[in-house]
Amino acid sequence: MGTLWIDVTDLKRWKGPRTGIPRVVSHISTHLLTDARAKPCVFDEKAGVFRPVEAADALFPGAYVAPAPAAPQGSAVIRGGGRLKRLLPAELRDPLRDLIFAAYRTLRGLWACLKAFPQKIHAKSEGQPTDALGFQKGDVLLALGSTWGSRGYGEAVWRLKRAQGFRVAHFIHDLIPVRFPHFFGPGFGEAFQAWALDALWISDLLITNSERSAADVRAFAAEVDVRCPPIEIVRLADEPLKVSAPRRPAHPALAKEFVLCVGTLEVRKNPELAYQAWKLLLELSEAETPQLVWVGSEGWLSHDWLYKVNQDPAIRDKILWLGGVSDEELDWLYTHCLFTIYPSQYEGWGLPVAESFARGKYVVTAGNSSMPEIGGALADYHSPWKAEELASLVARAIVDTDYRHAKEQEIRNTYQTTTWADCAQQVSAALDGHLPR
Amino acid sequence: MKILVLGTFPLTPARHGGQLRVGALIEAYRELGHEVEYLPVFCPRFYLDSPVPELSLTPGAATLERIEREPCLEDVFIGELAVHEPEARAKLARFLEEISPDVVQIEQPYLWASLKSLLPTLKHRPKVFYSSHNIEHLMKGLVYARELAPERAQEALRSVDQLDRELAQAADAVLAVTPSEAQTLKTWGARQVEVIINGATLPPTTDAALKSWQECLRPQPDRKWAFFVCSAHRPNLEGAENFLGPKLGYLAPHQRLVFAGGVCSLLDSSPLTGELAGAARARLTALGVLSNEALGALLRLTDLLVLPISAGAGSNLKTAQALLTDRPILATSFAFRGFEELKTAPGVFIADTPTEFREKLTQLLAVPTVAYPRSSELHAKLLWKKFAPEKLKAALAGLTAATPVSSHH
User: Fold this and answer.
1) Which of A77, A307, A368, B312 has the fewest CB atoms found within 10 Å of its own CB?
2) pLDDT tens, position by position, A189-206
3) Which residues contact B98 (CB under 8 A, 6 or more apart)?
4) Integer CA distances (angstroms), A371 to A337, A399, B285, in order
5) Residue A354: is its pLDDT beyond 70?
6) CA–CA separation, B272 vs B275, rounded Å?
């Protein structure tokens, strides 16, 4: 009977709230590891080997510290200054804001380094790493996370596989950097292509999160002329987070009525379209335009957009970016928003669309990539390139409350929430079906 | 004997086979005790890292303008320099008078256009050797077809062919690269033809270079890599694209192609690194032009030397160089032109279709690398210094019976 080795390297590395891929790794691993034949391991990039880890250590590493609720990131800091600012001549206010922002970031970075120092010392004193993992022939390695972040991963797994004869199942969350390298920083797209090529070579089974992602993988395999392993599609969980006490983010600029958008603040998620749509809405009716609250950490190529939004006097009170939001705060925001938008230009799986439905919230989303797979007839769609369409759908959702409430009712009546247990069960079934141990 | 060699390129640093061949012939002449001068007529902008020696000719504005308009005809325009530029003509005449050579050896036919009108004006008329590198119109056909309008390509090709034939007929002796080319040159009227196949040298290297390149290209002991080295000659790259690519995904995660030489500068516009450049570059390492020491190290370290050559004329110096190593060689039959009998040498694998080539490549990179020490007899056939002096001696000996050039006109 072979062992299922789950690569939890992401969890060992990730510092901060588990969102996105680390959340997927964490939840699926937690469920799969209840089986005694499943064990966690991490990839040692330097040695090119895997090492077994204790389950508790893998899933709940001590490095993670929840952010303090009283220190919201984002616009509040940028807009800091208060009375002091009013004492200054107008032409000095913006430079002062920039200066405060820069100083804040520097201090935050310094503080992070100081906080990490004892952990590093502690890590060094942990002694020798555990022995390299020797896979057995019937074993399966399950890679759920962002293995492209580990240098030499593909070649190392290929080498170990050839020597030890185990099999590999790899979760491909998306191939967006292959198709759209311009959404990422210089060089990332090329590095990602190299990783994706190796992923095809090393995998006996690929697991993806949508028909769209599966189609992208097949297309890529055909383009690079590599055999495509079997692909199983698993629906990711969208169950509401289990939080003890939902909490309103302590941000002074957070309005009473707001529309929510959840997603890393990066160019691919299309914040620019949201900005333009909100500009159009403000032209129609400033009073009736609710605030847009964008929740997500700062990601690729977003700085210019943030600068613009915060400098635009007409919009800076109408778009609020909140970074570093806790699960409790996110839960509160989902509950109290009017509805959600998701203007993303491309998604392997647009999780926030599903999460909105799971909370009975109406969604206006871009109608591309995987979003229609999730949204079906429950969501309303716009082109990711047409701000007028987004503005028009948002305006209807604001003005025509009957329409919105009817949609919400339909969502509550028909939407089937997927739990993490369901999701893990699908992964397990895919493994049993293709790679029996 | 005093010998003046004329060519359309400088000799250092040597970046392509032509430079290596001319350098080896000059060395062989010197070994025979002759006094040799090399007079390059070239466009410095194409050889930025080559010094411009005092004994050289470079084009003036008129020729540069022609080159600018039709870069693929650079060697033709350079060859006609003394025809179109009076200053260059005077300078070349002065060099010829001052050096007063017994033999003028023309590398490739192009400079014959300038030389032929000057010969009757010289006080001391030298013998002419034509050192052929290829049957030129066969070589240029593809290039001109790609770069020029059809009519212009035809016209240019005709004039190159005519020049090649004219010089073959006019020369007192002809040096050919392969027996089959010698045959062609004879049918054109060449009287004394000596075949000097392309030889090679295995560049020396150092332990330090071997160690550092081993660490660089084999970070894991089971990493395997095939090596392709060639100049920035587009048909060479096209052979690589055809036989190794255009997609490189068929190479496993531990297998790599390593390219070196001028060819690397052409890769940006190649299908090998096309749309999915990241995936291609995961399997292809392009090192650019290397020092001899580095090249020597790579030739000794590689798991497989590949010669995916499918176009061109003459014989391939890289084939000779590959045979001087003890590495396995995967090549097309075409890459062995001039060395046909060596196709059965130990460790030589021939594949003549892209599918066969790629299959054999992955197969050879999937098994432990075997060294194939090749015999000293084989080395004697390949090392310039072992055979070139004898061949040149024969060519010079034939001169006593040769008729002066002027009598052929």
Assistant:
1) A307
2) 999 999 999 999 999 999
3) none
4) 20, 24, 39
5) yes
6) 9
Is B249's CB within 8 Å of A196's CB?
no
Which tokens is A98 given? 């920039």
Interface confidence, given as ipTM, is 0.78
> In chain B, what's the furthest Cα-to-Cα distance?
68
Q: Given this model, what pLDDT does residue A119 score?
A: 45
* Peptide bond connecting A384 to the previous residue in cis, omega within 30 degrees of 0: no
B278 and A202 in contact by Cβ < 8 A?
A: no
Interface test with B, best of A180, A197, A203, A218 (most B CBs within 10 A): A197
> How far B308 CA sits from the closest chain A CA (Å)?
20
8 Å CB contact between A43 and A150: yes
Residues of A in contact with B368 (CB under 8 A): none
A108 close to A116: Cβ distance less than 8 angstroms:
no
**Does B253 contact chain A (CB < 8 Å)?**
yes
Is the per-residue pLDDT at A130 higher than 80? no
Vertex A43 angle, CA A42 and A45, to 5°: 145
pLDDT tens string B356-372: 999 999 999 999 999 99
A194 and B CB contact within 8 Å: yes
- For residue B96, the number of C-alpha atoms closer than 13 Å in the C-beta half-sphere is 26
Interface check for B249 against chain A (CB to CB < 8 A): the answer is yes
Model confidence at A124, in pLDDT bands (50, 70, 90)? very low
Which residues between 278 and 337 in chain B have a beta carbon less than 8 angstroms from any beta carbon of chain A? 278-279, 281-283
Q: Tokens 């090393």 correspond to what residue?
A: A202
pLDDT digits (tens, 9 = 90+) for A226-248: 999 999 999 999 998 788 899 99
A178 contacts on B by Cβ (under 8 Å): 276, 278
The backbone torsions φ and ψ at residue A40, rounded to the nearest 5 degrees and listed phi first, read -85, 150
Q: Which of B220, B252, B281 sits opposite A194 (nearest CB)?
A: B281
Helices (H) and strands (E) in chain B, counts: 17, 12
> What was the pLDDT predicted at A114?
52
CA pair distance A30, A33, nearest whole angstrom: 5
